[in-house]
Every structure is written in C-alpha cells, then in structure tokens.
Amino acid sequence: MSFVDAAQAHGRKTGQIKLHSAADFEPMRRAGWLAAEALDLLTPMVKPGVTTAELDQFAFQFGMDHRAYPAPLGYRGFRKSICTSINHVVCHGIPDNKPLRHGDIVNIDVTFILDGWHGDSSRMYIVGEAPRRAERLIEVTYEALMRGVAAVKPGATTSDIGAAIQSFAEGERCSVVRDFCGHGLGQLFHDEPNILHYQPTTQNGKKDPGAPLKPGMFFTIEPMINLGRAPVKVLPDGWTAVTRDRSLSAQFEHSVGVTETGVEIFTLSPRGLHQPSDYRPQA
Ligand code: MF3
Ligand code: CO
Ligand code: CO
C-alpha cells in the first residue's frame, strides 16, 4: 500500500486517475492471476518452522519461472520480493530467517509485474492454530475487504469504499488503520487514486465525497484492521509498521477494475483459497 499523503488524502487530487481501455483488462487479469496463484501455492508452505525468507525465495523463483518481476524487490530500497507481516505487524514486514511459530498469523503480500502490468494481492495465513480472537480478526478483515469491493461500481465514489469498510470493521469492535491506503495501479505500482479504508472528512468536518468511480479505473483495496487501537509506528528499519498498542493486525488485498456495471476482481484465488477458513479444517 502507499503511504497516505496527507495533502492528497484530504485535499483536491492534483493527479489524473487513469481510465484504462477494455483491452487493458486482459493483461491485468494475467498479472492478477499470477499474484493469486503465488498466494495459493504459498498456502501449504506456511507451517511452524518455515522462515519468511524461504517464502520470499519461493516467490522470487515463482516470478522468474513465469517471466514476471516481483515489484517490491528494489522498490524504494526494499530488498525482498514480498512483504510478510506477522501478528502485530500491520504491513511491510521484511522477510528474514526467523522461523514462523505455531499460533502466528501472517499476511503475505505479493506484487508481480507481468508484461508491464501489476498484480497486487495479499492474504492472511494461520501457522498451525491461532487463538479464536485472531481467527475472528482475520474473518472480520476479509469481510471488510469484500464489503469494500462490493461498493465499487460506476457512479459510486472512492469514499463509499472506505465507508463500507469502516462501518463494518468498527461495528465488529475493530479499528481501521489510517496511515496506509489502497492505490491505483496498472502499468504503475502506486498511482492515483488513493483508496482510503475509512470515510475521510473535509477540513470543515463534512464527509469528503472522494472521487467518482468510472469504468476502466484499476486500483487496490487493502484494509488493515486492528483488534486494538488504530495508531501505528514504523520501526527503525524504515519499513516494518506495527500497532502502537501491539495488538494483532490483519490485512487482505485485491486488485480490481471498475467495469460498466460494477467491479472485476483480478486477484481471485484460482483454488478458492480466499481466507484461512477455506483451507483449514474446522475443529
Ligand atoms: N504490495 C504492497 C502494496 O500493497 C507494497 C509493498 S512495497 C514494498 O502496495 F516495498 F514494501 F514491498
Ligand atoms: Co497494494
Ligand atoms: Co500489496
């Protein structure tokens, strides 16, 4: 996700929101599929003892095997191919040689550039079994993402997406991270518009209407939801964002396109592995 630029998040957009052609949906489908396929293949690898560096290495090789470049690698000095964000890490966790532990929850965020187009998606994984409150946070976060997706159609606005996510998540007694947002993408990784995951307000306290959604807009929706309070801080490595209260945080991300009638999700799981409850047998 991109860092929220306060001037842009609350002011008038200066940039242009690109409207892609019908033909541009095809390479986005391929890039999105590749990201989703990688997340599917990572699913059985997420077990106690595996290191996030091993998951990163798999994703790098997967990209190479498909003539795709992992967009994070070298992006603003990031030195890995994926982000792995464990427990109270909100986003942008850096893969390392520490083994995952039973009970951890981890977000894996992949972005591949295929034939010049970006597919960006993330999911939560559970290492072994997690406490019920962690499972609930993951379920709430997935549902929040899908409510945001369901708000996408021509004539709605970017603010409708954030409002749908916020009202659901806060109704579940969770909080929405304010410091990072979804983003336009396509041939660029992070472009206009910013997709906030809450309803922004203008300077005089009114609801910010946001930008109208139009067919051909491509962007991500990627809410970060905390069990505790919303504030985050970035660790001295310059990347790893954590909850200030050290409460658990979860995130899911899809890349989507606005169609004539609604929305197309580019990063749907080929195997239906949308969230942990789809691939973990219920006790
Ligand atoms: N994939 C992240 C996003 O959703 C961005 C990661 S940038 C990195 O936008 F440099 F941290 F990898
Ligand atoms: Co993103
Ligand atoms: Co991402």
Element string (H = helix, E = strand): EHHHEEEEEHHEEEEEEEEEEH
- Rg estimate, integer Å: 17 Å
**Percent range for β-strand residues:** 15-25%
Question: Runs with pLDDT <50, length 5+?
Answer: 5-14
Q: State the helicity in percent bands.
A: 25-40%
What's the mean pLDDT score? 95
Ions and ligands: 2-amino-4-trifluoromethylsulfanyl-butyric acid, cobalt (II) ion
Number of helices: 6
Output the structural class: alpha+beta
Oligomeric grouping of the chains: single chain
- Tell me how many strands there are: 16
Global outline = globular
Main β sheet profile: 4 strands, antiparallel
How far is the N terminus from the C terminus?
34 Å
Structure description:
By secondary structure, this protein is an alpha+beta fold. 26% of the residues lie in helices and 24% in strands. The strands form 5 sheets. Strands 2, 3, 5 and 6 form a 4-stranded antiparallel sheet that branches. The longest helix has 19 residues, at 132-150. The chain is globular. The two termini are 34 Å apart. The chain binds 2-amino-4-trifluoromethylsulfanyl-butyric acid (MF3) and cobalt (II) ion (CO) (2 copies).
